[in-house]
Amino acid sequence: RDLFKKTAEENDVLMPRINDALLAVTKETAFIGLELFANEPDHLIQGAKQAHDDIANRIKDGVLQNVATWMDAWPFKENTTYSMLICKVEKKYLRGTNEN
Fold first, then answer.
1. pTM of the prediction?
2. pLDDT tens digits, one per residue of 15-61
3. Cβ neighbours of residue 24 under 8 Å, at least 6 residues apart?
4. What's the CA dihedral at 84, 87, 88, 89 to 10 degrees?
């Protein structure tokens, strides 16, 4: 349980940094795919949850605009299906700047 908590805490820091890097090389529009959970909604995927939360916060803060969202099932392997969230977002400006 301590390892799970530590991984979650590290993902809280790491995922926004990964999103920063993704958005830094994005000119206007990005498609972001996240495997939110496997088989059941209470089996959230570490890293994907934090990446989703970070993107949602950027939309809420006006940094990104959510253009479209899709949910789809990905049959990864036998007995494991991921619920995939795919978002099309448009950049307004990078976090911490007012640049277009």
1. 0.77
2. 999 999 999 999 899 999 888 888 877 777 888 889 999 999 999 99
3. 94
4. -150
